[in-house]
Amino acid sequence: MSSKELLQEKMPEDKENGAEMSFLDHLEELRWRLIYALIGVVAGTVIAWIFIDQLVAFILLKPARDAGAVLQNLKPFGQIFLYLQVAIIAGIILSLPNLFYQLWKFIAPALKKNERKYILAVVIFSTLCFLSGIVFAYYVLLPLALQFVAQFGTEAIKNNFAINEYMNIIISIMLGAGLVFELPMLSFFLTKLGIITPAFMRKYRRYALIIILFFAALLTPPDPVSQVILAVPLVLLYEISIFISKLSLKKS
Protein backbone atom coordinates (compact mmCIF):
# COMPACT_ATOMS: atom_id res chain seq x y z
CA MET A 1 0.00 0.00 0.00
CA SER A 2 1.46 3.40 -0.98
CA SER A 3 1.94 6.31 1.45
CA LYS A 4 -0.80 8.22 -0.36
CA GLU A 5 -3.24 5.37 0.19
CA LEU A 6 -2.23 5.21 3.84
CA LEU A 7 -2.90 8.92 4.30
CA GLN A 8 -6.28 8.53 2.65
CA GLU A 9 -7.26 5.61 4.85
CA LYS A 10 -10.82 6.15 5.96
CA MET A 11 -11.52 7.55 9.41
CA PRO A 12 -14.83 7.47 11.38
CA GLU A 13 -17.62 8.58 9.07
CA ASP A 14 -19.17 12.02 9.13
CA LYS A 15 -22.65 11.11 10.28
CA GLU A 16 -24.04 14.47 9.20
CA ASN A 17 -23.96 13.68 5.47
CA GLY A 18 -23.36 9.94 5.60
CA ALA A 19 -19.92 10.23 3.97
CA GLU A 20 -16.68 9.05 5.47
CA MET A 21 -13.88 11.54 6.17
CA SER A 22 -10.32 10.69 5.21
CA PHE A 23 -7.28 11.41 7.33
CA LEU A 24 -6.49 14.48 5.19
CA ASP A 25 -10.07 15.70 5.58
CA HIS A 26 -9.65 15.54 9.35
CA LEU A 27 -6.37 17.47 9.15
CA GLU A 28 -8.01 20.17 7.04
CA GLU A 29 -10.93 20.38 9.47
CA LEU A 30 -8.51 20.64 12.40
CA ARG A 31 -6.57 23.41 10.66
CA TRP A 32 -9.66 25.55 10.17
CA ARG A 33 -10.89 24.92 13.71
CA LEU A 34 -7.51 26.07 15.06
CA ILE A 35 -7.66 29.19 12.89
CA TYR A 36 -11.16 30.06 14.12
CA ALA A 37 -10.04 29.44 17.71
CA LEU A 38 -7.00 31.70 17.25
CA ILE A 39 -9.15 34.47 15.79
CA GLY A 40 -11.36 34.30 18.88
CA VAL A 41 -8.34 34.47 21.21
CA VAL A 42 -6.94 37.49 19.34
CA ALA A 43 -10.30 39.27 19.53
CA GLY A 44 -10.57 38.47 23.25
CA THR A 45 -7.02 39.72 23.85
CA VAL A 46 -7.79 43.03 22.12
CA ILE A 47 -10.89 43.50 24.28
CA ALA A 48 -8.90 42.61 27.42
CA TRP A 49 -6.16 45.09 26.47
CA ILE A 50 -8.71 47.91 26.24
CA PHE A 51 -9.61 47.31 29.91
CA ILE A 52 -6.17 46.11 31.05
CA ASP A 53 -5.70 48.79 33.73
CA GLN A 54 -9.01 47.99 35.39
CA LEU A 55 -8.37 44.26 35.03
CA VAL A 56 -4.99 44.42 36.75
CA ALA A 57 -5.64 47.12 39.35
CA PHE A 58 -9.19 46.34 40.47
CA ILE A 59 -9.42 42.57 39.95
CA LEU A 60 -6.05 40.80 39.98
CA LEU A 61 -4.43 42.99 42.65
CA LYS A 62 -7.48 42.97 44.95
CA PRO A 63 -6.64 39.64 46.66
CA ALA A 64 -3.19 41.00 47.56
CA ARG A 65 -4.64 44.24 48.95
CA ASP A 66 -7.21 42.34 51.01
CA ALA A 67 -4.50 40.08 52.43
CA GLY A 68 -2.24 43.03 53.25
CA ALA A 69 0.51 41.79 50.92
CA VAL A 70 3.06 44.27 49.55
CA LEU A 71 3.87 43.85 45.85
CA GLN A 72 6.85 45.21 43.95
CA ASN A 73 8.22 45.11 40.42
CA LEU A 74 11.84 43.95 40.23
CA LYS A 75 12.40 44.00 36.45
CA PRO A 76 12.76 47.04 34.12
CA PHE A 77 10.17 45.72 31.67
CA GLY A 78 8.34 43.64 34.26
CA GLN A 79 5.03 45.48 34.10
CA ILE A 80 4.99 45.55 30.29
CA PHE A 81 5.39 41.78 30.02
CA LEU A 82 2.97 41.34 32.91
CA TYR A 83 0.27 43.33 31.12
CA LEU A 84 0.82 41.35 27.92
CA GLN A 85 0.56 38.06 29.83
CA VAL A 86 -2.63 39.12 31.57
CA ALA A 87 -4.18 40.35 28.31
CA ILE A 88 -3.47 37.07 26.51
CA ILE A 89 -4.79 34.90 29.34
CA ALA A 90 -7.87 37.11 29.70
CA GLY A 91 -8.35 36.85 25.94
CA ILE A 92 -8.31 33.06 26.18
CA ILE A 93 -10.89 33.16 28.97
CA LEU A 94 -13.12 35.60 27.05
CA SER A 95 -12.98 33.36 23.99
CA LEU A 96 -13.84 30.18 25.92
CA PRO A 97 -17.27 29.75 24.29
CA ASN A 98 -15.65 29.91 20.86
CA LEU A 99 -12.84 27.55 21.92
CA PHE A 100 -15.26 24.95 23.24
CA TYR A 101 -17.48 25.39 20.18
CA GLN A 102 -14.56 24.75 17.79
CA LEU A 103 -13.51 21.71 19.82
CA TRP A 104 -16.96 20.14 19.74
CA LYS A 105 -17.49 20.97 16.06
CA PHE A 106 -14.27 19.09 15.34
CA ILE A 107 -15.56 16.13 17.35
CA ALA A 108 -19.05 16.37 15.82
CA PRO A 109 -18.42 14.05 12.81
CA ALA A 110 -17.78 11.20 15.25
CA LEU A 111 -21.09 11.83 17.04
CA LYS A 112 -24.49 10.49 16.13
CA LYS A 113 -26.98 12.84 14.54
CA ASN A 114 -29.18 13.00 17.63
CA GLU A 115 -26.11 13.84 19.75
CA ARG A 116 -25.07 16.86 17.67
CA LYS A 117 -28.09 18.87 18.74
CA TYR A 118 -26.58 19.05 22.25
CA ILE A 119 -23.39 20.81 21.07
CA LEU A 120 -24.65 24.28 22.03
CA ALA A 121 -25.70 23.04 25.49
CA VAL A 122 -22.32 21.33 25.93
CA VAL A 123 -20.48 24.54 24.95
CA ILE A 124 -22.50 26.61 27.44
CA PHE A 125 -22.11 24.06 30.22
CA SER A 126 -18.34 23.69 29.59
CA THR A 127 -17.89 27.45 29.73
CA LEU A 128 -19.92 27.75 32.93
CA CYS A 129 -17.92 24.95 34.56
CA PHE A 130 -14.61 26.65 33.76
CA LEU A 131 -15.81 30.07 34.89
CA SER A 132 -17.22 28.55 38.09
CA GLY A 133 -13.78 27.17 38.87
CA ILE A 134 -12.20 30.59 38.32
CA VAL A 135 -14.79 32.30 40.55
CA PHE A 136 -14.32 29.66 43.26
CA ALA A 137 -10.55 30.12 43.18
CA TYR A 138 -10.81 33.92 43.24
CA TYR A 139 -13.25 34.21 46.13
CA VAL A 140 -12.29 31.15 48.21
CA LEU A 141 -8.87 29.68 47.46
CA LEU A 142 -6.86 32.85 46.82
CA PRO A 143 -7.94 34.74 49.96
CA LEU A 144 -7.09 31.71 52.09
CA ALA A 145 -3.72 31.14 50.42
CA LEU A 146 -2.64 34.79 50.38
CA GLN A 147 -3.73 35.44 53.95
CA PHE A 148 -1.66 32.45 55.04
CA VAL A 149 1.54 33.43 53.20
CA ALA A 150 1.22 37.14 54.05
CA GLN A 151 1.02 36.41 57.78
CA PHE A 152 3.44 33.48 57.90
CA GLY A 153 6.88 33.83 59.46
CA THR A 154 8.57 36.19 61.87
CA GLU A 155 8.02 39.94 62.05
CA ALA A 156 11.77 40.40 61.57
CA ILE A 157 11.33 39.44 57.91
CA LYS A 158 9.05 41.63 55.82
CA ASN A 159 6.95 39.77 53.26
CA ASN A 160 7.27 41.73 50.02
CA PHE A 161 6.25 39.74 46.93
CA ALA A 162 7.54 40.16 43.39
CA ILE A 163 4.62 41.10 41.15
CA ASN A 164 5.44 38.50 38.49
CA GLU A 165 5.59 35.70 41.08
CA TYR A 166 2.30 36.88 42.56
CA MET A 167 0.59 36.94 39.15
CA ASN A 168 1.96 33.52 38.22
CA ILE A 169 0.54 32.05 41.43
CA ILE A 170 -2.95 33.55 41.22
CA ILE A 171 -3.29 32.87 37.47
CA SER A 172 -2.12 29.27 37.95
CA ILE A 173 -4.57 28.70 40.80
CA MET A 174 -7.51 30.19 38.88
CA LEU A 175 -6.77 28.31 35.65
CA GLY A 176 -6.10 25.10 37.60
CA ALA A 177 -9.45 25.42 39.39
CA GLY A 178 -11.14 26.08 36.05
CA LEU A 179 -9.69 22.88 34.60
CA VAL A 180 -10.67 20.86 37.70
CA PHE A 181 -14.24 22.10 37.39
CA GLU A 182 -14.32 20.63 33.87
CA LEU A 183 -14.46 17.16 35.45
CA PRO A 184 -18.17 16.64 34.54
CA MET A 185 -17.48 17.46 30.87
CA LEU A 186 -14.41 15.21 30.88
CA SER A 187 -16.62 12.45 32.24
CA PHE A 188 -19.09 13.04 29.39
CA PHE A 189 -16.35 12.91 26.77
CA LEU A 190 -14.60 9.80 28.15
CA THR A 191 -17.94 8.00 28.45
CA LYS A 192 -18.70 8.77 24.80
CA LEU A 193 -15.32 7.28 23.88
CA GLY A 194 -16.11 4.16 25.91
CA ILE A 195 -13.13 4.68 28.25
CA ILE A 196 -15.14 4.99 31.48
CA THR A 197 -18.61 4.03 32.67
CA PRO A 198 -20.72 5.07 35.68
CA ALA A 199 -20.07 1.63 37.19
CA PHE A 200 -16.32 2.15 36.82
CA MET A 201 -16.51 5.56 38.53
CA ARG A 202 -18.62 4.20 41.39
CA LYS A 203 -16.29 1.23 41.84
CA TYR A 204 -13.23 3.46 42.23
CA ARG A 205 -14.96 6.20 44.23
CA ARG A 206 -12.81 5.49 47.31
CA TYR A 207 -9.59 5.90 45.35
CA ALA A 208 -10.94 9.07 43.77
CA LEU A 209 -11.69 10.52 47.21
CA ILE A 210 -8.11 9.84 48.30
CA ILE A 211 -6.79 11.61 45.20
CA ILE A 212 -9.17 14.52 45.83
CA LEU A 213 -7.95 14.91 49.42
CA PHE A 214 -4.35 14.77 48.20
CA PHE A 215 -4.92 17.59 45.70
CA ALA A 216 -6.88 19.59 48.29
CA ALA A 217 -3.90 19.37 50.63
CA LEU A 218 -1.52 20.24 47.80
CA LEU A 219 -3.38 23.33 46.55
CA THR A 220 -4.33 24.91 49.87
CA PRO A 221 -2.51 26.26 52.94
CA PRO A 222 -1.62 23.51 55.46
CA ASP A 223 -4.72 23.78 57.64
CA PRO A 224 -7.72 21.41 57.76
CA VAL A 225 -10.34 24.13 57.16
CA SER A 226 -8.86 25.21 53.81
CA GLN A 227 -8.47 21.61 52.70
CA VAL A 228 -12.09 20.76 53.51
CA ILE A 229 -13.31 23.92 51.74
CA LEU A 230 -11.62 22.73 48.54
CA ALA A 231 -12.33 19.01 48.99
CA VAL A 232 -16.11 19.39 49.38
CA PRO A 233 -16.77 20.91 45.92
CA LEU A 234 -14.35 18.42 44.35
CA VAL A 235 -16.30 15.52 45.85
CA LEU A 236 -19.55 17.07 44.58
CA LEU A 237 -17.99 17.44 41.13
CA TYR A 238 -17.07 13.77 41.14
CA GLU A 239 -20.63 12.76 42.00
CA ILE A 240 -21.99 15.08 39.31
CA SER A 241 -19.54 13.46 36.88
CA ILE A 242 -21.01 10.04 37.64
CA PHE A 243 -24.48 11.39 36.91
CA ILE A 244 -23.26 13.01 33.66
CA SER A 245 -21.59 9.75 32.65
CA LYS A 246 -24.85 7.87 33.28
CA LEU A 247 -26.83 10.33 31.14
CA SER A 248 -24.22 10.16 28.40
CA LEU A 249 -24.38 6.37 28.38
CA LYS A 250 -28.17 6.39 28.02
CA LYS A 251 -27.97 8.72 25.02
CA SER A 252 -25.30 6.61 23.29
Give an account of the 3D structure.
There is one protein chain. The protein is mainly alpha-helical and 252 residues long. The protein has a domain at 19-123 and 156-178. The chain contains 13 helices and 4 strands. It has helices at residues 3-7, 23-50, 52-60, 62-67, 78-94, 96-107, 113-116, 119-151, 163-180, 183-192, 198-203, 205-219, 224-250; strands at 10-13, 20-22, 70-72, 160-162. It has a two-stranded antiparallel sheet with strand order 1-2. A two-stranded parallel sheet has the order 3-4. Helix 2 packs antiparallel against helix 6 (96-107), helix 6 packs across helix 8 (119-151) and helix 12 packs across helix 13. The two termini are 35 Å apart. Mean pLDDT is 80; it is low at 1-13.
Spatial gap, N to C terminus: 35 Å
- Strand content of the residues, in percent? 5-15%
Number of strands: 4
The low-confidence runs, each spanning 5 or more residues with pLDDT under 50, are: 1-13
Q: Which structural class should the secondary elements be placed in?
A: mainly alpha
Distinct helical segment count: 13
What is the residue-mean pLDDT, rounded to a whole number? 80
The coarse overall form would be: flat
Strands of the largest sheet, in order across it? 1-2
